Amino acid sequence: MYMSGKKALDLMTELEIILPIESKLPPNDFRYKFIETRNKLFEHNYNPRADHLPDLILEPSIWEVIATKSQMTVYVHTRNEREYEAFIDYYQDYYNLEKIFVDVVTKFN
Q: How far apart are CA 65 and CA 61, in angstroms?
């Protein structure tokens, strides 16, 4: 979902169906957060800030997606192994992304 959702957002931006993220959208905008989740957790090999925090490694527990719960655990490694746990509500991300698609389609009428 994160990989194809990012590509769909990029395509809609390129076709000027939705505003680009850089155009006066706050950093807490859903699209910005969605793309950064994809970038940091799935695209950059779990090491999003190697130059600033070399000991930080984010490890999403992707196998939890198979279960029926809506949250995916992200293990945060620092100098201590698995020091913290964070959670991503990927169901909510999916519904928010779906709302963007529905809003775009309804504008075609």
A: 8
- Give the β-pairing of 57-60 and 84-89: unpaired
29 CA to centre of own chain: 12
In the predicted structure, residue 75 carries a pLDDT above the cut 60: yes
pTM of the entire predicted model? 0.72
Looking at residue 87, the DSSP 8-state letter turns out to be E
Distances (CA, A) of 50 to 1, 35, 61: 25, 19, 20
For the chain, how many structural domains are there in total?
1
Bridge partner list, 59: 75
Which one-letter amino acid corresponds to residue 92? Answer: Q
Q: Which domain holds residue 92?
A: 2-106
CB atoms within 10 A of CB 77: 16
